[in-house]
Amino acid sequence: MLLYHSRLIVLSIICQVITVYSADHLLEGIYCGKNNCYEVLGVSREATKNEIGRSYRQLAKKFHPDMHRLPEAKKEAEEKFKEIATAYEILRDDEERSDYDYMLDNPQEYYAHYYRYYRRRMAPKVDVRIVIAVTISVISVIQYYSAWSKYDTAIKYFMTVPKYRNRALEIAKAESKEAQLKGKANRKSKAEQKMEQDRVIRRVIEENLDIRGAYAKPQVVDILWIQLILLPYTITYYAYWYLRWFWKFTIMKQPYGEEEKLYLIRKYMKLGQHQFNALEDEERQQFLDEELWIKDNFLVWKELKDEEAKKALAENNKYKQYRRYIKQHGVGRMTFDDS
Fold first, then answer.
1. How many CB atoms sit inside 10 A of residue 290's CB?
2. What are 281-300's pLDDT values in tens digits?
3. Tell me, what's a Pfam family for it (predicted)?
4. Rounded to 5 degrees, what angle do the CA atoms 224, 228, 232 make?
């Protein structure tokens, strides 16, 4: 019997020590400070969300500052109300409650608790997926309008080139005469006639001129959002294309078609798709006629082009002056008596 009572006394002392130890290890400045959030709300650690919410409403009503008139009582109620609100904010959120429970169970991890607390406090509340979607949308809009700006610049440039402007003027005059014959023409000032003429010239150039490369007319499929949506198809297409190439031309040794020949020529020239598409049809046909898809033919052609470029550069007056200067003064030398 004496042994039984001794055990009860020991267990009681252990419980008191644990309670004091836990209270001493509640950290100031985070969560509920030196107070236990569960005890502030008067609930156990096993309490459900509904029980926590019900206890919070009862305590909030009881300690609401407006329920007290005396200054001292009002001040005490305000402090108690803040404690209750803080405890509720922590325990109603599943992730924050989990962090708090971890702190109660592992009080020795002092710095880790501060890190978890402030990481959650400082983390952005906006969903990362929304941020990514908005970013892609902004990039897509900028990309699309930038492409339209480049296209508009190209059209304005071609409107000033005599070759294209004169041809467009002929078409514009023909349309004007046709409108006059049909009686659709009305009296316009010279400024209005000039604006109408420029509109017609622009329309004619847009309809008849095939602008390629980086200044080509933008298409919706070129923007980033559409490219990302089409990415699985693009990957599948390129995988099929390379497997087909390996099978047809590496294993079966079949002759190249025109598309494959142009691809090899573009690859040897180290040009992008837009750059190669910007070349004139006659120039690409010349590449095919010279059989530049054959590596040896391309190397000979490139050597000839390099020689022609060197000869043209040597005959250039500015280049001659530069060579003469380098010969007299050396590279990177600067003097004040140069004529």
1. 14
2. 888 899 999 999 999 999 99
3. DnaJ
4. 150
- Give backbone dihedrals phi and psi of 47, rounded to 5 degrees, phi first: -65, 145
Sign, CA torsion 38/39/40/44? positive
Task: Find out whether 302 and 313 touch, Cβ atoms under 8 Å.
Answer: no
Q: Which residues contact 21 (CB under 8 A, 6 or more apart)?
A: 107
Give residue-wise pLDDT tens across range 164-209: 788 777 777 777 666 665 555 556 677 777 787 778 778 877 877 7
68, 77 in Cβ contact below 8 A?
Answer: yes
In eight-state DSSP terms, residue 1 is -
CA–CA dist 249, 260 (Å, integer): 10
Return phi, psi of residue 338, to 5°. Answer: -70, 135
- pLDDT bin (cut points 50, 70, 90) of residue 57 is very high
Check if the beta carbon of residue 278 is closer than 8 Å to that of residue 212: yes
End-to-end CA distance of the chain: 120
DSSP letter for each residue of 30-76 = STTTTS-HHHHHT--TT--HHHHHHHHHHHHHHS-GGG--SHHHHHH
Write phi, then psi, for 270 (nearest 5 degrees): 60, 45
> What distance in Å separates the CA atoms of residue 284 and residue 266, rounded to the nearest whole number?
10
What three-state secondary structure class fits 105? helix
CA distances from 137 to 141, 228, 311, 324 (A): 6, 11, 50, 55
Q: Which two tokens stand for residue 55?
A: 């206890």
Give the closest residue to 90 by CA, choosing from 21, 39, 23, 20: 39
Distance CA 129, CA 287 (A): 48
The kind and range of the H/E element at 22 are helix 2-24
What secondary structure does DSSP assign to 155-206, as a single string?
Answer: HHHHHHSHHHHHHHHHHHHHHHHHHHHTT------HHHHHHHHHHHHHHHHH
